[in-house]
């Protein structure tokens, strides 16, 4: 499993698609955004009660997302997973759930001004969301990575090759363990 962790708009999806194209074997591309885009979430989000997004729905959604990853891998699928590991507890949860798997954890970094520019260009993200993941949530501080990359200049063929070369030459122990 190749697990990409980075802020919103950092290039994780572009990198995942590029990796899929470059790999010699089929890898499934899995992200929580795909579940959201499929209409999985209830349309109602309220501050309190059973539809309370932050305290009720969101924690269960991500707990389920984390649990689907070992299920997919244990069924024999190779995965490229993109995620925003927002809390140390999420990283701990993933380490526990994926501990029996070969997980190559990639830190996807991007200049903050470039994150802001991409969010404005996309039009489907809250401006400052990616910056908040880095500055407020501190997503890159919860532990080491097997590889750190910078996507500020985009996802180039050379960057894809760098990730694949590092993945192909990985050694134990892995960063997520």
TrEMBL record:
InterPro entries: CPT, P-loop_NTPase. Pfam families: CPT. This is Chloramphenicol phosphotransferase CPT family protein. It comes from Nonomuraea spiralis.
């Amino acid at each position: 499993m190749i697990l990409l962790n980075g802020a919103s708009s950092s290039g994780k999806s572009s990198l995942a698609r590029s990796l899929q194209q470059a790999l010699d074997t089929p890898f499934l591309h899995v992200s929580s955004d795909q579940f959201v885009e499929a209409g999985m979430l209830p349309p109602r989000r309220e501050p309190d009660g059973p539809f309370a997004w932050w305290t009720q729905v969101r924690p269960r959604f991500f707990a389920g997302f984390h649990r689907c990853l070992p299920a997919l891998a244990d069924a024999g699928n190779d995965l490229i997973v993109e995620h925003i590991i927002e809390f140390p507890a999420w990283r701990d949860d993933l380490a526990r759930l994926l501990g029996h798997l070969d997980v190559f954890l990639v830190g996807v970094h991007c200049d903050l001004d470039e994150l802001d520019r991409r969010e404005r260009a996309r039009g489907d993200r809250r401006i400052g969301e990616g910056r908040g993941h880095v500055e407020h949530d501190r997503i890159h501080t919860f532990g080491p990575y097997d590889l750190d990359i910078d996507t500020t200049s985009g996802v180039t063929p050379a960057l894809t090759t760098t990730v694949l070369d590092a993945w192909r030459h990985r050694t134990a122990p892995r960063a997520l363990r």
